[in-house]
Amino acid sequence: MSSESVIVTPGRRLGLTQEYESGPGTYVRNGMIYSSILGTKKIEQALAETSDDSIKRPMLFVERQNTKFAIPVIGSEILGRVVRINPRAASVAIMMVDSAPCQEDFQGIVRVQDIRATEKDLVQMINSFRPGDIIRAEVISLGDQRSYFLATTKNEHGVVFAQSEAGNSMIPISWEEMQDPKTQTIEKRKCAKPVT
Amino acid sequence: MDMDDTSEQQQVAFAMHTFERIHHTEFQRRFLSQNTRHDGRAFSQFRATHVTKGTVSTAQGSSTVRIGNTTVVCGIKAEVSEPDVKTPNEGYLVTNVELSPMCSARFRPGAPSDEAQVASEHIHRLFGKAVDLATLCIESGQAVWSLSADIVCLKYDGNILDTAILALVAALEDLRLPEAQLDSATGVVSADRTIARQLTLRKRLFPATFALVDTYLVADADDAEEQLATTSVLVVLDDSGRLANIWKRGACPVSNETIHQCIESAVERAETISKTL
Amino acid sequence: MSANIFDRRRVNGPPRSVEPLYTDEGDVKPFTNGGRADGRSLDQLRPIFIKTGPLAVQPTFSPTAPSGSAYYEQGKIRISCAVYGPRQGRKSNPRMGSFDCDFQYAPFSCSWKRRPHIKGADEKEIALILEQAMAPAIRLEAYPKACIDAFVTVIESDGKFATISAAINCISAALADAGIELYDIVAACSMSLNASQWVSDCNQAEEDVSQCSLFVSRMPSADEITYLLQQGKTMPDQTDRAVQTCSNSCARVYAVLSRYLQASMEQPAS
C-alpha cells in the first residue's frame, strides 16, 4: 500500500509526542511514542479543520490485520446469548464486542431496571428475554466480581434473534412483540430496532 | 478502488465471523448442505499429514505428526523394571495421551479429561499386540524393558486419535533399544547405546476417523465439525490390508452402508499414509 | 528401584522402574583446553529458530484455538507455547488484567529419568519465574477484569537455565503473535561459570560441570532487567561482569526474535 508500511515489533520507538499523537497500538513514555503490538506502523494525517486553537498533530498508530480478540469496555456494543433469567436479572454470555469476537464468552448481566428506558418498574423479565435469545446490548459498567453490567435501554438494543417455543426463528413485529411465521403465535420480547 | 474493496471485504468478513460465533451449528450446516466443508475440503478428503521421526533426542524413540493443525509429539523412554510374575518374559509398552489446556481451550487444567483417558486406554489396547513384548526381555523373570510412550498434544484441532496412532507407529519405528545386560551379582542392568537395535513391529497401523454430522459422513473432522458430530467411526488397518480395529462411538446408530463406506475410505487412506510413514 | 506413582486416571506401567546404567558415556568432557565440545566459542549462542502462529491455514475463527502460539528451538532445546486471552479471569481486578503462566516438562524431555505426569515442585517454581519475568512487559492496564494465560510445554530440554531462558523467549514470541499489548519483547539468556570463565548459553553437560549458573531476562527498549536468577557461589564482581555480558547476549537474542516476528507478519495473511 503506502511506501511507508514498516512492520514494527512491540517496544520500537515510533516518534516524539511533540510531533505526533499516539493512537491505538502505541504507548507513551518520557515524551516518546513506542509501539505496543506487532503490526504495521501507520500515520494518519491531521484533519484540516479544528475547533480549538491547538495544532492537530498527525496520529501514529500500529495496525494489525488479523482479528484481534476483544474485551468488553464501558460504552461498547456487545452481542450475546441469554443464558439464564430470573425476575431480577438476565445472565448473558458475551460473544462479540463491537464486531470483534471474544476468545471465550464473558459473563454479563442485564438487570431488570436496565432493560427499558421508560416505565422501568413495569418491566417483566419473562416478557423481555428468554434463555437462548441473542441480544445486542451496551456495557454500562465493569460490574462486580463475576459479571459486566449491560443495558438494552436504547431502541437499537434488545433481542435480535429468538426462537419461538415451537422452535422456529421469530420475526420482530413491534418493539415488544415477535411472531413465529409458521405457527403465527406472538411472543413478547424487548426487540431491537432493525438496523437498515 | 483498493481501499473500498478491502473495507467491504472486512465488512463481509466481520459478518461471517459474527454468524459463525453466534450460530455455530447453523454456520457449519450451511457449508455441508452445499456439499462442501468450511475449509473447502471434500467430504472424503483428509487434511495434509506430515510425519517426522527422531525429533526428540532425549527420548529413545520419537516422532512429530501433524494432521492439519492438530500437532502431536510422541516420545518413548525406555527404562528397566522387573517383569510381571505372570509374564516373566514380557516387557511393557505403556501408552498415554496428554491433552493439556495448552492445546485447546476445551481442556481444563488438572487431572486428565475424559477424552484423554479414553484415548489413552484405547490406544494402549490397540498397540498391545503391535509389539512383540518378548523382544523386550533382558533376563527372563528378572529384568525387562519398560517402554513409556507419551503422546503430548501441542495443538488440538480435532481427530486426536488418528494423529496419536500415527505418532506412536512412527516413534516405535524410530526406537533404538540399547543392548542391555543384567549383572546378577549386583542386580544392576547396564546398557550400551552404541549398540542399539530396532524394534520389529508385528504390524504397522493406519488409522482413519470419520464423523457423522447430521446425515453427512465426513472424513477427518476438525474441531469445529467434531463438536457437531453425533457419531464417529475409527477404522484401523494394518499393513497387510486387514482390519485391526473398528470403533464406532456416539449416540446415533449408523447403517451397514456407512460402515462399508468408512472401510473403503480407510483403505485408500492407508495407502496414502503408508508412503509418508 | 524407584517407585512410579500410580495414577488411576492414566495407563500405568510397572510399579517400579529405573534407567539402566549407560556404559557408553565415555570421557567426553564438555570443556577441553578452553574450547567447547560442540565447537562454539565461549560467548556464542546456539542457533535459534522460531515459528509463530498456526501451522496450517486457519480457515475460520475457532473459539478454542489459542490467540497466539510459538514454537521455539535453540540448539536441541524445543519449546512450545500457547497464549489464551484476553478472556474472563477468576481474579477479576477492575483496574488491571492478570497474567498466569503454566509450565510443564513433557515426560520424555529430560536426558535423565522420565518425568512423572504429575507436576513437580520445580515445574511450579519455573512457572512462577516465568510469570514474574513476563508480567512487567505486558500492558495489563489495557485489559481490566480479563486474564491472559500462557501455557508452556518443554518438548526437549538441554540445560536448566538455558531452558528457562528459552521459555521466556518463547512466551514473548507467542504474546506478540497474539496481539497482546506489550511494553517490549522480553529476551533472556543464560550463562555458566566454569574455571573462572563465564560461558554463554550452556547445554546440560556444560551446566553440570559448572560451579554457578545464572540467567537474565531483559526489556531492551527500557533497558530494564525483568528477572535475574543465580544458582551457585561467586564473588560480587564476577556476577557483575556476568550480568553485563548476559545483557549483551540478550540484545542479540532480541534481534533474532524481532527478525522472526517481523518475518511472520510479512507472510501472506491466512
From TrEMBL, chain A:
It is found in: Nucleus, Nucleolus. The keyword Cytoplasm applies. The keyword Nucleotidyltransferase does not apply. One of its GO terms (biological process) is RNA processing. Residues 75-154 form the S1 motif domain. SMART domains: S1. Keywords: Cytoplasm, Exosome. One of its GO terms (molecular function) is RNA binding. GO terms for cellular component: cytoplasm; nuclear exosome (RNase complex); nucleolus. InterPro entries: Csl4, EXOSC1_C, Exosome_cplx_N_dom, NA-bd_OB-fold, S1_domain. CDD domains: S1_CSL4. Signal peptide: none annotated. This is S1 motif domain-containing protein. It comes from Coemansia spiralis.
TrEMBL record, chain B:
GO terms for cellular component: cytoplasmic exosome (RNase complex); nuclear exosome (RNase complex); nucleolus. The keyword Cytoplasm applies. It is found in: Cytoplasm; Nucleus, Nucleolus. Keywords: Cytoplasm, Exosome, Nucleus, RNA-binding, rRNA processing. Its main location: cytoplasm. The keyword ATP-binding does not apply. GO terms for molecular function: mRNA 3'-UTR AU-rich region binding. One of its GO terms (biological process) is TRAMP-dependent tRNA surveillance pathway. Transmembrane segments: none annotated. Residues 45-178, 208-268 form the Exoribonuclease phosphorolytic domain. Belongs to the RNase PH family. This is Ribosomal RNA-processing protein 43. It comes from Coemansia spiralis.
TrEMBL record, chain C:
It is found in: Cytoplasm; Nucleus. Residues 1-39 are annotated as: Disordered. InterPro entries: ExoRNase_PH_dom1, ExoRNase_PH_dom2_sf, PNPase/RNase_PH_dom_sf, Ribosomal_Su5_D2-typ_SF, RNase_PH. GO terms for cellular component: cytoplasmic exosome (RNase complex); nuclear exosome (RNase complex); nucleolus. One of its GO terms (molecular function) is RNA binding. Keywords: Cytoplasm, Exosome, Nucleus, RNA-binding, rRNA processing. Pfam families: RNase_PH. Residues 44-181 form the Exoribonuclease phosphorolytic domain. Its main location: cytoplasm. It comes from the Eukaryota. Residues 1-10 have a biased composition (Basic and acidic residues). GO terms for biological process: nuclear mRNA surveillance; poly(A)-dependent snoRNA 3'-end processing; rRNA catabolic process; rRNA processing; U4 snRNA 3'-end processing. Belongs to the RNase PH family. This is 3'-5'-exoribonuclease.
